[in-house]
Amino acid sequence: MADPDATAWVLAGPDDAPDVTDGRLPRLLLPPTCYSQTAMSYMVKCHDRRGKFNAPAAVALGVEKRNFKYLAAGQSVTSTDGKTVTPDMVLGDPLPGSGIIVADVPSPDFVEAFMRRPEWKSKELMSHMVIMYWILGPALSSDSRILAFIHTHAHIKHVFCADDTCPNMVTHPGAAELLVKLRRIDPARFPLCEFDNSVSYPAPDEPSPLQLGRAGSTTTLMPRVINDTKPPAPFPDLLAPASDVAQNCLDLAAAAKAASEDPAFLARVEAEDGDLPNRDAEIIPLGTGSSVPSKYRNVSATLIRVPGLGAYLLDCGEGTLGQIRRALGRQESIQVLRQLRCIVISHLHADHHLGVVSVIRAWYSRCLADESSSSSSSSSPHSSTSPKTLAISCISRYRTMLQELSQVEDFGFHRLRFPNCSPTQGYRDRDVVNTDLDPTWSIQSITRIPVNHCWRSHATQLELTSGLRIAYSGDCRPCPAFASSCRGAHLLVHECTFGDDPSMQAHAVAKKHSTLEEALQVAREMGASRTLLTHFSQRYVKASCLKTTSSSSTCGGDDDEHRQNVIMAYDMMRVKLGQFQQAACFVPAVQALMESLGTHD
Protein backbone atom coordinates (compact mmCIF):
# COMPACT_ATOMS: atom_id res chain seq x y z
CA MET A 1 0.00 0.00 0.00
CA ALA A 2 1.16 3.56 -0.60
CA ASP A 3 2.26 5.71 2.33
CA PRO A 4 1.73 9.26 1.02
CA ASP A 5 3.29 10.93 4.09
CA ALA A 6 6.62 9.15 3.74
CA THR A 7 6.37 8.78 -0.05
CA ALA A 8 7.46 5.16 0.35
CA TRP A 9 5.97 1.80 -0.34
CA VAL A 10 5.09 -0.51 2.53
CA LEU A 11 5.24 -4.11 1.39
CA ALA A 12 3.63 -7.02 3.11
CA GLY A 13 6.12 -9.07 5.11
CA PRO A 14 6.11 -12.81 5.75
CA ASP A 15 3.87 -12.36 8.77
CA ASP A 16 1.33 -10.48 6.65
CA ALA A 17 1.05 -13.15 3.95
CA PRO A 18 -2.37 -14.72 3.58
CA ASP A 19 -2.95 -18.07 5.25
CA VAL A 20 -2.98 -20.51 2.32
CA THR A 21 -3.56 -24.17 3.10
CA ASP A 22 -4.31 -25.60 -0.36
CA GLY A 23 -0.71 -25.60 -1.61
CA ARG A 24 -0.95 -22.34 -3.55
CA LEU A 25 1.76 -19.71 -3.14
CA PRO A 26 0.61 -16.31 -1.84
CA ARG A 27 0.51 -13.60 -4.49
CA LEU A 28 2.45 -10.53 -3.37
CA LEU A 29 2.85 -8.01 -6.18
CA LEU A 30 5.66 -5.52 -6.56
CA PRO A 31 4.68 -1.87 -6.13
CA PRO A 32 3.89 0.05 -9.31
CA THR A 33 6.63 2.14 -10.87
CA CYS A 34 7.28 3.96 -14.15
CA TYR A 35 9.41 3.49 -17.24
CA SER A 36 13.10 3.84 -16.62
CA GLN A 37 14.71 6.82 -18.36
CA THR A 38 18.17 5.92 -17.11
CA ALA A 39 21.16 4.29 -18.75
CA MET A 40 23.78 3.00 -16.32
CA SER A 41 27.50 3.42 -16.88
CA TYR A 42 30.20 2.06 -14.61
CA MET A 43 33.64 3.12 -13.40
CA VAL A 44 35.63 0.26 -11.88
CA LYS A 45 39.02 0.60 -10.19
CA CYS A 46 41.37 -1.96 -8.70
CA HIS A 47 42.72 -1.45 -5.18
CA ASP A 48 46.11 0.19 -4.88
CA ARG A 49 48.93 -2.34 -4.79
CA ARG A 50 51.55 -2.19 -2.06
CA GLY A 51 54.97 -0.91 -2.98
CA LYS A 52 57.90 -3.18 -3.70
CA PHE A 53 59.44 -4.82 -0.63
CA ASN A 54 63.04 -3.69 -0.01
CA ALA A 55 64.67 -6.81 1.40
CA PRO A 56 68.19 -5.31 1.81
CA ALA A 57 66.72 -2.44 3.83
CA ALA A 58 64.87 -4.89 6.06
CA VAL A 59 68.04 -6.88 6.68
CA ALA A 60 69.93 -3.69 7.47
CA LEU A 61 67.27 -2.81 10.05
CA GLY A 62 67.76 -6.18 11.74
CA VAL A 63 64.54 -7.85 10.61
CA GLU A 64 64.62 -11.63 10.52
CA LYS A 65 63.61 -13.20 7.20
CA ARG A 66 60.73 -15.04 8.84
CA ASN A 67 59.19 -11.66 9.69
CA PHE A 68 59.34 -10.28 6.13
CA LYS A 69 55.82 -11.54 5.42
CA TYR A 70 54.37 -9.49 8.29
CA LEU A 71 55.94 -6.30 7.04
CA ALA A 72 54.69 -7.06 3.52
CA ALA A 73 51.20 -7.54 4.97
CA GLY A 74 51.33 -4.12 6.64
CA GLN A 75 52.21 -5.19 10.19
CA SER A 76 55.03 -3.80 12.30
CA VAL A 77 57.67 -6.18 13.67
CA THR A 78 60.49 -6.05 16.21
CA SER A 79 64.07 -6.24 14.96
CA THR A 80 66.82 -8.35 16.53
CA ASP A 81 68.00 -5.36 18.56
CA GLY A 82 64.51 -4.69 19.95
CA LYS A 83 63.54 -1.76 17.74
CA THR A 84 60.14 -1.48 16.05
CA VAL A 85 60.25 -1.65 12.27
CA THR A 86 57.17 -0.31 10.48
CA PRO A 87 56.07 -1.27 6.93
CA ASP A 88 56.77 2.20 5.50
CA MET A 89 60.45 1.71 6.38
CA VAL A 90 60.84 -1.21 3.95
CA LEU A 91 58.07 -0.74 1.37
CA GLY A 92 58.16 1.49 -1.68
CA ASP A 93 55.39 3.87 -2.66
CA PRO A 94 52.00 2.18 -3.28
CA LEU A 95 51.15 1.53 -6.91
CA PRO A 96 47.76 3.08 -7.78
CA GLY A 97 45.08 0.72 -9.03
CA SER A 98 44.09 0.94 -12.66
CA GLY A 99 40.49 1.19 -13.80
CA ILE A 100 38.04 0.75 -16.64
CA ILE A 101 34.88 2.56 -17.69
CA VAL A 102 31.85 0.91 -19.27
CA ALA A 103 29.70 3.58 -20.93
CA ASP A 104 26.19 2.71 -22.11
CA VAL A 105 24.79 5.32 -24.51
CA PRO A 106 21.74 3.71 -26.16
CA SER A 107 20.44 6.69 -28.17
CA PRO A 108 21.21 10.33 -29.04
CA ASP A 109 18.84 11.43 -26.26
CA PHE A 110 21.38 10.30 -23.67
CA VAL A 111 24.52 11.94 -25.08
CA GLU A 112 24.17 15.43 -23.59
CA ALA A 113 23.36 14.13 -20.11
CA PHE A 114 26.27 11.72 -20.37
CA MET A 115 28.70 14.51 -21.26
CA ARG A 116 27.50 16.67 -18.35
CA ARG A 117 28.34 14.06 -15.73
CA PRO A 118 30.75 15.54 -13.12
CA GLU A 119 32.76 12.32 -12.96
CA TRP A 120 34.55 13.14 -16.20
CA LYS A 121 36.12 16.23 -14.56
CA SER A 122 37.13 14.45 -11.35
CA LYS A 123 40.90 13.94 -11.26
CA GLU A 124 40.52 11.39 -8.48
CA LEU A 125 38.12 9.23 -10.47
CA MET A 126 39.68 9.65 -13.90
CA SER A 127 43.27 9.13 -12.81
CA HIS A 128 44.72 5.80 -13.88
CA MET A 129 41.71 4.89 -16.00
CA VAL A 130 43.21 2.90 -18.85
CA ILE A 131 40.36 1.75 -21.07
CA MET A 132 36.78 2.81 -21.81
CA TYR A 133 34.27 0.50 -23.47
CA TRP A 134 31.48 2.30 -25.35
CA ILE A 135 28.22 0.39 -25.79
CA LEU A 136 26.59 2.54 -28.44
CA GLY A 137 23.20 2.72 -30.09
CA PRO A 138 22.73 2.98 -33.86
CA ALA A 139 24.87 5.61 -35.64
CA LEU A 140 26.34 6.99 -32.40
CA SER A 141 29.84 5.87 -33.33
CA SER A 142 30.00 8.93 -35.61
CA ASP A 143 28.49 11.39 -33.12
CA SER A 144 30.73 14.49 -32.96
CA ARG A 145 30.20 14.88 -29.20
CA ILE A 146 31.45 11.38 -28.49
CA LEU A 147 34.42 11.81 -30.81
CA ALA A 148 35.27 15.10 -29.07
CA PHE A 149 35.14 13.33 -25.69
CA ILE A 150 37.58 10.72 -26.99
CA HIS A 151 39.92 13.45 -28.23
CA THR A 152 39.83 15.15 -24.81
CA HIS A 153 40.62 11.90 -23.01
CA ALA A 154 43.09 10.57 -25.54
CA HIS A 155 45.29 9.07 -22.80
CA ILE A 156 42.59 6.40 -22.36
CA LYS A 157 42.10 3.57 -24.82
CA HIS A 158 38.53 3.79 -26.19
CA VAL A 159 36.80 0.70 -27.56
CA PHE A 160 33.60 0.95 -29.62
CA CYS A 161 31.15 -1.91 -29.11
CA ALA A 162 28.27 -1.42 -31.54
CA ASP A 163 26.53 -3.19 -34.40
CA ASP A 164 28.04 -0.84 -36.96
CA THR A 165 31.61 -0.99 -35.63
CA CYS A 166 32.10 -4.65 -34.77
CA PRO A 167 32.12 -7.62 -37.14
CA ASN A 168 29.27 -10.09 -36.83
CA MET A 169 31.88 -12.80 -36.35
CA VAL A 170 31.43 -16.31 -35.03
CA THR A 171 31.97 -15.96 -31.30
CA HIS A 172 31.42 -19.62 -30.41
CA PRO A 173 33.79 -21.41 -32.79
CA GLY A 174 33.28 -24.83 -31.22
CA ALA A 175 29.58 -24.90 -32.08
CA ALA A 176 30.19 -23.39 -35.53
CA GLU A 177 32.90 -25.95 -36.36
CA LEU A 178 30.60 -28.78 -35.28
CA LEU A 179 27.88 -27.39 -37.54
CA VAL A 180 30.33 -27.27 -40.47
CA LYS A 181 31.26 -30.91 -39.93
CA LEU A 182 27.62 -31.94 -39.65
CA ARG A 183 27.02 -30.13 -42.93
CA ARG A 184 29.54 -32.46 -44.59
CA ILE A 185 27.34 -35.34 -43.43
CA ASP A 186 23.87 -33.92 -44.17
CA PRO A 187 23.90 -30.54 -45.96
CA ALA A 188 20.11 -30.47 -46.30
CA ARG A 189 19.61 -30.37 -42.53
CA PHE A 190 22.69 -28.43 -41.40
CA PRO A 191 23.10 -25.10 -43.24
CA LEU A 192 25.96 -22.76 -42.37
CA CYS A 193 25.33 -20.26 -39.61
CA GLU A 194 25.19 -16.57 -40.49
CA PHE A 195 28.32 -14.45 -39.98
CA ASP A 196 30.06 -11.46 -41.53
CA ASN A 197 33.67 -10.65 -40.74
CA SER A 198 33.64 -7.30 -42.53
CA VAL A 199 33.08 -3.93 -40.85
CA SER A 200 31.69 -0.88 -42.64
CA TYR A 201 33.06 1.56 -40.04
CA PRO A 202 36.43 3.00 -41.15
CA ALA A 203 39.42 1.67 -39.25
CA PRO A 204 40.99 4.31 -36.94
CA ASP A 205 44.29 5.82 -38.01
CA GLU A 206 47.39 4.72 -36.11
CA PRO A 207 48.28 5.81 -33.54
CA SER A 208 44.77 6.45 -32.25
CA PRO A 209 43.09 6.15 -28.85
CA LEU A 210 40.12 4.57 -30.63
CA GLN A 211 39.84 0.85 -31.20
CA LEU A 212 37.02 -1.19 -32.72
CA GLY A 213 35.75 -3.93 -30.45
CA ARG A 214 36.58 -7.49 -31.28
CA ALA A 215 35.68 -10.71 -29.48
CA GLY A 216 38.72 -12.14 -27.72
CA SER A 217 40.58 -8.86 -27.11
CA THR A 218 41.99 -8.57 -23.58
CA THR A 219 43.38 -5.92 -21.25
CA THR A 220 45.26 -6.74 -18.03
CA LEU A 221 44.86 -4.18 -15.23
CA MET A 222 46.92 -5.73 -12.44
CA PRO A 223 49.66 -6.26 -11.39
CA ARG A 224 50.58 -3.99 -14.30
CA VAL A 225 48.58 -2.65 -17.22
CA ILE A 226 48.98 -4.69 -20.39
CA ASN A 227 46.91 -3.63 -23.38
CA ASP A 228 46.57 -6.35 -25.97
CA THR A 229 48.45 -4.49 -28.68
CA LYS A 230 49.08 -7.62 -30.72
CA PRO A 231 47.06 -8.02 -33.91
CA PRO A 232 43.68 -9.54 -33.05
CA ALA A 233 43.36 -13.26 -33.40
CA PRO A 234 42.27 -14.33 -36.87
CA PHE A 235 38.62 -14.98 -37.47
CA PRO A 236 37.62 -18.61 -36.89
CA ASP A 237 38.52 -20.73 -39.90
CA LEU A 238 35.41 -22.72 -40.80
CA LEU A 239 36.98 -24.31 -43.88
CA ALA A 240 39.55 -26.39 -42.03
CA PRO A 241 36.98 -28.31 -39.91
CA ALA A 242 35.07 -29.21 -43.08
CA SER A 243 38.08 -31.16 -44.34
CA ASP A 244 38.64 -32.83 -40.98
CA VAL A 245 35.88 -35.44 -41.19
CA ALA A 246 36.83 -39.11 -40.98
CA GLN A 247 36.44 -41.08 -44.20
CA ASN A 248 34.22 -43.71 -42.59
CA CYS A 249 31.76 -40.93 -41.68
CA LEU A 250 31.76 -39.66 -45.25
CA ASP A 251 31.19 -43.20 -46.53
CA LEU A 252 28.20 -43.61 -44.21
CA ALA A 253 26.89 -40.21 -45.34
CA ALA A 254 27.19 -41.22 -49.00
CA ALA A 255 25.28 -44.43 -48.28
CA ALA A 256 22.61 -42.44 -46.42
CA LYS A 257 22.26 -40.01 -49.32
CA ALA A 258 21.81 -42.88 -51.75
CA ALA A 259 19.23 -44.53 -49.48
CA SER A 260 17.30 -41.29 -48.97
CA GLU A 261 17.10 -40.74 -52.74
CA ASP A 262 16.12 -44.30 -53.61
CA PRO A 263 12.86 -44.22 -55.64
CA ALA A 264 11.35 -47.11 -53.69
CA PHE A 265 12.12 -45.37 -50.40
CA LEU A 266 10.66 -42.08 -51.62
CA ALA A 267 7.52 -43.83 -52.87
CA ARG A 268 7.03 -45.45 -49.46
CA VAL A 269 7.55 -42.13 -47.69
CA GLU A 270 5.04 -40.47 -50.01
CA ALA A 271 2.47 -43.17 -49.31
CA GLU A 272 2.97 -43.01 -45.54
CA ASP A 273 2.99 -39.21 -45.35
CA GLY A 274 0.06 -38.58 -47.65
CA ASP A 275 -2.23 -37.51 -44.80
CA LEU A 276 0.44 -35.61 -42.85
CA PRO A 277 -0.61 -31.92 -42.65
CA ASN A 278 1.91 -29.15 -43.24
CA ARG A 279 4.69 -31.40 -44.49
CA ASP A 280 6.66 -28.25 -45.29
CA ALA A 281 6.60 -27.12 -41.64
CA GLU A 282 10.20 -26.57 -40.56
CA ILE A 283 11.55 -27.44 -37.12
CA ILE A 284 14.63 -25.46 -36.05
CA PRO A 285 16.15 -26.41 -32.67
CA LEU A 286 17.81 -23.26 -31.33
CA GLY A 287 18.94 -24.70 -28.01
CA THR A 288 19.13 -28.42 -27.22
CA GLY A 289 21.05 -28.52 -23.94
CA SER A 290 19.83 -28.54 -20.37
CA SER A 291 20.51 -26.26 -17.42
CA VAL A 292 23.26 -23.94 -18.75
CA PRO A 293 24.82 -23.16 -22.14
CA SER A 294 27.82 -25.27 -23.11
CA LYS A 295 30.45 -25.22 -25.84
CA TYR A 296 28.17 -26.99 -28.32
CA ARG A 297 24.58 -26.56 -27.08
CA ASN A 298 22.56 -23.57 -25.95
CA VAL A 299 19.64 -23.87 -23.52
CA SER A 300 16.09 -24.81 -24.47
CA ALA A 301 14.31 -23.31 -27.46
CA THR A 302 12.67 -24.89 -30.50
CA LEU A 303 11.30 -22.82 -33.37
CA ILE A 304 8.58 -24.27 -35.61
CA ARG A 305 7.77 -22.40 -38.82
CA VAL A 306 4.56 -23.39 -40.60
CA PRO A 307 4.25 -21.70 -44.02
CA GLY A 308 1.00 -19.83 -44.39
CA LEU A 309 0.22 -20.02 -40.67
CA GLY A 310 3.06 -18.64 -38.57
CA ALA A 311 6.02 -19.35 -36.32
CA TYR A 312 5.75 -20.96 -32.89
CA LEU A 313 8.40 -21.03 -30.17
CA LEU A 314 8.57 -23.87 -27.65
CA ASP A 315 10.39 -22.42 -24.63
CA CYS A 316 12.81 -19.56 -24.92
CA GLY A 317 16.04 -19.89 -22.96
CA GLU A 318 18.68 -17.20 -22.65
CA GLY A 319 20.25 -16.30 -25.98
CA THR A 320 17.33 -17.49 -28.10
CA LEU A 321 17.12 -14.23 -30.08
CA GLY A 322 20.83 -14.43 -30.86
CA GLN A 323 20.42 -18.04 -31.97
CA ILE A 324 17.58 -17.03 -34.31
CA ARG A 325 19.74 -14.35 -35.90
CA ARG A 326 22.79 -16.61 -36.11
CA ALA A 327 20.84 -19.51 -37.59
CA LEU A 328 18.68 -17.58 -40.04
CA GLY A 329 20.51 -14.35 -40.79
CA ARG A 330 19.27 -10.81 -40.40
CA GLN A 331 16.62 -10.75 -43.14
CA GLU A 332 15.12 -14.17 -42.45
CA SER A 333 15.06 -13.49 -38.70
CA ILE A 334 12.98 -10.39 -39.45
CA GLN A 335 10.51 -12.64 -41.26
CA VAL A 336 10.40 -14.99 -38.26
CA LEU A 337 9.54 -12.09 -35.96
CA ARG A 338 6.79 -11.02 -38.35
CA GLN A 339 5.42 -14.56 -38.40
CA LEU A 340 5.71 -15.21 -34.64
CA ARG A 341 2.32 -16.20 -33.25
CA CYS A 342 2.86 -17.97 -29.93
CA ILE A 343 5.54 -18.64 -27.30
CA VAL A 344 5.06 -21.64 -25.01
CA ILE A 345 6.68 -21.50 -21.55
CA SER A 346 6.64 -25.00 -20.09
CA HIS A 347 7.86 -24.12 -16.58
CA LEU A 348 9.75 -21.52 -14.60
CA HIS A 349 13.29 -22.87 -14.62
CA ALA A 350 15.51 -20.09 -15.94
CA ASP A 351 16.98 -22.10 -18.82
CA HIS A 352 13.50 -22.22 -20.37
CA HIS A 353 12.40 -18.57 -20.22
CA LEU A 354 15.24 -16.08 -19.70
CA GLY A 355 15.20 -15.20 -23.41
CA VAL A 356 11.49 -14.44 -23.61
CA VAL A 357 11.59 -10.69 -23.00
CA SER A 358 14.34 -10.17 -25.59
CA VAL A 359 12.29 -12.00 -28.21
CA ILE A 360 9.10 -10.12 -27.30
CA ARG A 361 10.95 -6.80 -27.43
CA ALA A 362 12.34 -7.61 -30.89
CA TRP A 363 8.89 -8.77 -32.05
CA TYR A 364 7.29 -5.55 -30.77
CA SER A 365 9.94 -3.37 -32.43
CA ARG A 366 9.32 -5.16 -35.72
CA CYS A 367 5.56 -4.63 -35.34
CA LEU A 368 6.05 -0.90 -34.78
CA ALA A 369 8.43 -0.62 -37.73
CA ASP A 370 6.02 -2.43 -40.05
CA GLU A 371 3.05 -0.40 -38.86
CA SER A 372 5.00 2.83 -39.32
CA SER A 373 5.93 1.90 -42.88
CA SER A 374 2.40 0.73 -43.69
CA SER A 375 0.92 4.01 -42.48
CA SER A 376 2.87 5.80 -45.20
CA SER A 377 2.17 3.12 -47.80
CA SER A 378 -1.20 1.42 -47.60
CA SER A 379 -0.05 -1.10 -50.18
CA SER A 380 2.62 -2.47 -47.83
CA PRO A 381 2.42 -6.29 -47.64
CA HIS A 382 2.72 -6.04 -43.85
CA SER A 383 -0.14 -3.57 -43.33
CA SER A 384 -2.94 -4.63 -41.02
CA THR A 385 -6.24 -3.14 -39.94
CA SER A 386 -5.56 -3.97 -36.27
CA PRO A 387 -2.39 -4.21 -34.17
CA LYS A 388 -0.73 -7.61 -34.04
CA THR A 389 -0.91 -9.65 -30.85
CA LEU A 390 1.30 -12.44 -29.55
CA ALA A 391 0.10 -15.42 -27.54
CA ILE A 392 2.10 -16.42 -24.46
CA SER A 393 1.12 -19.84 -23.12
CA CYS A 394 2.26 -19.72 -19.49
CA ILE A 395 1.03 -19.81 -15.92
CA SER A 396 -0.51 -16.70 -14.38
CA ARG A 397 2.51 -16.09 -12.16
CA TYR A 398 4.68 -15.62 -15.25
CA ARG A 399 2.13 -13.20 -16.67
CA THR A 400 2.43 -11.21 -13.44
CA MET A 401 6.20 -11.06 -13.81
CA LEU A 402 5.90 -9.72 -17.36
CA GLN A 403 3.31 -7.19 -16.22
CA GLU A 404 5.61 -5.93 -13.46
CA LEU A 405 8.54 -5.71 -15.86
CA SER A 406 6.42 -3.73 -18.32
CA GLN A 407 6.28 -0.91 -15.76
CA VAL A 408 10.04 -0.49 -16.14
CA GLU A 409 10.28 -0.66 -19.93
CA ASP A 410 7.83 -0.77 -22.80
CA PHE A 411 8.49 -4.08 -24.53
CA GLY A 412 4.93 -4.42 -25.84
CA PHE A 413 3.09 -6.03 -22.93
CA HIS A 414 -0.19 -4.48 -24.06
CA ARG A 415 0.12 -6.52 -27.28
CA LEU A 416 0.50 -9.83 -25.41
CA ARG A 417 -2.36 -12.24 -24.86
CA PHE A 418 -2.39 -15.03 -22.29
CA PRO A 419 -4.89 -17.64 -23.42
CA ASN A 420 -4.10 -19.94 -20.48
CA CYS A 421 -4.86 -17.20 -17.94
CA SER A 422 -8.59 -16.52 -17.61
CA PRO A 423 -9.24 -12.73 -17.52
CA THR A 424 -12.74 -13.28 -16.13
CA GLN A 425 -11.40 -15.19 -13.11
CA GLY A 426 -8.54 -12.97 -11.97
CA TYR A 427 -6.20 -14.46 -14.58
CA ARG A 428 -6.34 -17.86 -12.95
CA ASP A 429 -4.70 -20.68 -14.84
CA ARG A 430 -6.70 -22.86 -17.18
CA ASP A 431 -5.32 -25.90 -18.96
CA VAL A 432 -7.59 -26.30 -21.99
CA VAL A 433 -8.31 -23.38 -24.31
CA ASN A 434 -10.18 -23.65 -27.60
CA THR A 435 -12.18 -20.43 -27.64
CA ASP A 436 -11.42 -16.71 -27.70
CA LEU A 437 -8.23 -17.31 -29.66
CA ASP A 438 -7.06 -14.60 -32.02
CA PRO A 439 -7.61 -16.00 -35.53
CA THR A 440 -4.30 -14.48 -36.68
CA TRP A 441 -2.48 -17.02 -34.48
CA SER A 442 -3.83 -19.88 -36.62
CA ILE A 443 -4.30 -21.92 -33.43
CA GLN A 444 -7.39 -24.08 -33.02
CA SER A 445 -6.71 -25.04 -29.40
CA ILE A 446 -4.06 -25.03 -26.69
CA THR A 447 -4.01 -27.94 -24.25
CA ARG A 448 -1.74 -28.05 -21.22
CA ILE A 449 -1.09 -31.20 -19.20
CA PRO A 450 0.43 -30.97 -15.69
CA VAL A 451 3.64 -33.02 -15.53
CA ASN A 452 6.05 -34.18 -12.85
CA HIS A 453 8.89 -31.68 -12.70
CA CYS A 454 9.02 -28.41 -10.76
CA TRP A 455 6.09 -26.32 -9.47
CA ARG A 456 3.40 -25.77 -12.12
CA SER A 457 5.20 -27.56 -14.95
CA HIS A 458 3.15 -28.35 -18.04
CA ALA A 459 3.40 -30.25 -21.26
CA THR A 460 1.55 -28.53 -24.10
CA GLN A 461 -0.26 -29.44 -27.30
CA LEU A 462 -0.80 -26.83 -29.99
CA GLU A 463 -3.46 -27.73 -32.53
CA LEU A 464 -3.26 -25.42 -35.52
CA THR A 465 -6.15 -24.50 -37.78
CA SER A 466 -4.66 -26.70 -40.50
CA GLY A 467 -5.07 -29.72 -38.23
CA LEU A 468 -1.37 -30.00 -37.39
CA ARG A 469 -0.89 -31.12 -33.78
CA ILE A 470 2.38 -30.36 -32.00
CA ALA A 471 3.03 -31.99 -28.61
CA TYR A 472 5.77 -30.60 -26.38
CA SER A 473 6.82 -32.28 -23.15
CA GLY A 474 8.83 -29.49 -21.56
CA ASP A 475 10.89 -31.01 -18.73
CA CYS A 476 9.31 -33.95 -16.98
CA ARG A 477 9.28 -37.57 -16.00
CA PRO A 478 7.33 -39.79 -18.44
CA CYS A 479 3.68 -38.78 -18.24
CA PRO A 480 0.89 -41.21 -19.29
CA ALA A 481 -1.64 -38.36 -19.21
CA PHE A 482 0.47 -36.45 -21.72
CA ALA A 483 0.68 -39.49 -24.01
CA SER A 484 -3.07 -40.09 -23.89
CA SER A 485 -4.09 -36.43 -24.23
CA CYS A 486 -1.91 -35.97 -27.32
CA ARG A 487 -2.51 -39.37 -28.90
CA GLY A 488 -1.82 -39.30 -32.61
CA ALA A 489 0.15 -36.02 -32.53
CA HIS A 490 1.94 -35.29 -35.79
CA LEU A 491 5.06 -33.99 -34.03
CA LEU A 492 6.32 -34.81 -30.55
CA VAL A 493 9.18 -32.73 -29.13
CA HIS A 494 10.29 -34.60 -26.01
CA GLU A 495 13.05 -33.99 -23.52
CA CYS A 496 15.82 -36.59 -23.35
CA THR A 497 18.07 -35.39 -20.56
CA PHE A 498 19.78 -38.69 -19.82
CA GLY A 499 20.98 -41.66 -21.83
CA ASP A 500 20.12 -45.29 -21.16
CA ASP A 501 23.08 -45.98 -18.91
CA PRO A 502 21.56 -47.80 -15.87
CA SER A 503 23.45 -45.45 -13.56
CA MET A 504 21.43 -42.55 -14.98
CA GLN A 505 18.01 -43.98 -14.13
CA ALA A 506 18.14 -42.99 -10.47
CA HIS A 507 19.50 -39.61 -11.51
CA ALA A 508 16.57 -39.09 -13.89
CA VAL A 509 14.07 -39.93 -11.15
CA ALA A 510 15.77 -37.64 -8.64
CA LYS A 511 16.00 -34.72 -11.08
CA LYS A 512 12.53 -35.40 -12.54
CA HIS A 513 13.75 -35.81 -16.11
CA SER A 514 13.43 -38.53 -18.76
CA THR A 515 15.91 -41.01 -20.17
CA LEU A 516 16.25 -41.82 -23.85
CA GLU A 517 14.22 -45.02 -23.65
CA GLU A 518 11.53 -43.36 -21.52
CA ALA A 519 11.11 -40.59 -24.10
CA LEU A 520 10.80 -43.17 -26.87
CA GLN A 521 8.24 -45.10 -24.83
CA VAL A 522 6.11 -41.96 -24.50
CA ALA A 523 6.35 -41.56 -28.29
CA ARG A 524 5.14 -45.15 -28.77
CA GLU A 525 2.24 -44.74 -26.34
CA MET A 526 1.27 -41.47 -27.97
CA GLY A 527 1.56 -42.91 -31.47
CA ALA A 528 3.36 -39.75 -32.55
CA SER A 529 4.04 -39.56 -36.28
CA ARG A 530 7.36 -37.77 -35.78
CA THR A 531 9.54 -37.43 -32.67
CA LEU A 532 12.33 -34.95 -32.03
CA LEU A 533 14.50 -35.61 -28.96
CA THR A 534 16.07 -32.58 -27.28
CA HIS A 535 17.20 -31.10 -23.91
CA PHE A 536 20.29 -33.27 -23.43
CA SER A 537 22.37 -33.12 -20.29
CA GLN A 538 25.49 -31.05 -20.85
CA ARG A 539 27.50 -34.01 -19.53
CA TYR A 540 27.06 -35.44 -23.05
CA VAL A 541 29.50 -33.03 -24.67
CA LYS A 542 28.43 -33.80 -28.24
CA ALA A 543 25.78 -36.42 -27.39
CA SER A 544 28.11 -39.13 -28.69
CA CYS A 545 27.05 -41.23 -25.70
CA LEU A 546 23.39 -41.15 -26.78
CA LYS A 547 23.92 -43.70 -29.52
CA THR A 548 20.94 -45.97 -29.02
CA THR A 549 18.72 -43.62 -31.01
CA SER A 550 19.53 -45.34 -34.27
CA SER A 551 18.48 -48.76 -33.09
CA SER A 552 15.48 -47.33 -31.27
CA SER A 553 14.20 -45.03 -33.99
CA THR A 554 10.74 -46.55 -34.10
CA CYS A 555 7.40 -45.33 -32.87
CA GLY A 556 4.49 -47.67 -32.46
CA GLY A 557 6.27 -50.87 -33.37
CA ASP A 558 9.32 -52.48 -34.90
CA ASP A 559 7.99 -53.03 -38.40
CA ASP A 560 9.41 -51.04 -41.27
CA GLU A 561 6.38 -48.79 -41.69
CA HIS A 562 7.06 -47.14 -38.33
CA ARG A 563 10.82 -46.92 -38.61
CA GLN A 564 12.92 -43.79 -38.99
CA ASN A 565 10.51 -41.33 -37.37
CA VAL A 566 12.81 -40.33 -34.49
CA ILE A 567 15.74 -37.97 -34.79
CA MET A 568 18.00 -36.23 -32.31
CA ALA A 569 18.11 -32.43 -32.23
CA TYR A 570 21.26 -30.37 -32.71
CA ASP A 571 21.49 -26.62 -32.35
CA MET A 572 20.60 -24.81 -35.60
CA MET A 573 19.67 -27.89 -37.58
CA ARG A 574 16.66 -27.43 -39.86
CA VAL A 575 14.37 -30.33 -40.69
CA LYS A 576 10.98 -30.29 -42.36
CA LEU A 577 8.16 -32.37 -40.96
CA GLY A 578 7.83 -34.29 -44.21
CA GLN A 579 11.56 -35.11 -44.31
CA PHE A 580 12.02 -36.85 -40.96
CA GLN A 581 12.50 -40.20 -42.63
CA GLN A 582 15.14 -38.80 -44.99
CA ALA A 583 16.90 -37.14 -42.04
CA ALA A 584 16.82 -40.39 -40.07
CA CYS A 585 18.77 -42.11 -42.86
CA PHE A 586 21.76 -39.98 -41.80
CA VAL A 587 21.59 -40.92 -38.10
CA PRO A 588 24.33 -43.62 -38.33
CA ALA A 589 26.67 -41.20 -40.12
CA VAL A 590 25.97 -38.42 -37.61
CA GLN A 591 26.58 -40.76 -34.69
CA ALA A 592 29.83 -41.99 -36.22
CA LEU A 593 30.93 -38.36 -36.56
CA MET A 594 30.06 -37.65 -32.92
CA GLU A 595 31.96 -40.67 -31.71
CA SER A 596 35.04 -39.68 -33.71
CA LEU A 597 34.89 -36.13 -32.39
CA GLY A 598 34.30 -37.26 -28.83
CA THR A 599 37.76 -38.78 -28.70
CA HIS A 600 39.28 -35.30 -29.15
CA ASP A 601 37.43 -33.57 -26.29
**The CATH topology of the domain at 247-598 is what?**
Metallo-beta-lactamase, Chain A
Q: Please report the total strand number as a whole number.
A: 27
Structural class: alpha/beta
Oligomer state equals single chain
CATH homologous superfamily caption of the domain at 247-598: Ribonuclease Z/Hydroxyacylglutathione hydrolase-like
**Coarse morphology:** globular
Radius of gyration: 30 Å
Q: What proportion of the residues form beta strands (DSSP E)?
A: 15-25%
CATH hierarchy: architecture of the domain at 247-598: 4-Layer Sandwich
Arrangement of strands in the largest sheet: 17-16-15-14-13-12-27
Q: In CATH, what is the class of the domain at 247-598?
A: Alpha Beta
Helix content: 25-40%
Q: What summary fits the major beta sheet?
A: 7 strands, mixed
Q: What is the end-to-end distance?
A: 57 Å
- Low-pLDDT stretches are 1-12, 548-564
Summed up, the helix count is 16
Can you summarize this structure?
Its EC number is 3.1.26.11. It comes from Ophiocordyceps unilateralis (Zombie-ant fungus). With 601 residues, this protein is α/β, with parallel strands linked by helices.
What report would you give on this structure?
This protein is 27% helix and 18% strand. It has 601 residues and is an alpha/beta fold. Among the domains are: 55-89, no CATH class; 247-598, Metallo-beta-lactamase, Chain A. Helix 7 packs antiparallel against helix 16 and helix 9 runs parallel beside helix 10.
